[in-house]
């Protein structure tokens, strides 16, 4: 039962999966998510964070106000660091007072 169609190293398999994921996102029209996956160190805008987390703008503002979603302001614009957004998802939720 050791018949394989092809053999991949871990790195090759990871690259293959990333490419499949990117193609699927491109087909679904989710460009904001696809672009944020391509360059993980970049700054994201509100619409990109909402698409990435699949939340609405009001929910994003609530999470920002509660300190759950770290953000930065430059004038009237709001930016998010992708690594911090993803890390904030790993933090446990705190119960209200």
From TrEMBL:
Protein name in the entry: Helix-turn-helix domain-containing protein
One function term, GO molecular function aspect: DNA binding
Ranges where the Helix-turn-helix domain occurs: 44-91
Pfam families linked to this entry: HTH_17
């Amino acid at each position: 039962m050791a018949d394989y169609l092809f053999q991949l190293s871990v790195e090759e398999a990871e690259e293959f999966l990333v490419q499949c994921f990117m193609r699927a996102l491109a087909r679904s029209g989710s460009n904001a998510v696809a672009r944020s996956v391509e360059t993980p160190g970049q700054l994201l805008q509100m619409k990109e964070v909402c698409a990435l987390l699949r939340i609405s703008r009001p929910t994003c503002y609530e999470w920002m106000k509660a300190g759950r979603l770290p953000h930065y302001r430059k004038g009237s614009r709001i930016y998010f660091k992708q690594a911090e957004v993803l890390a904030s998802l790993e933090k446990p939720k705190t119960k209200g007072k």
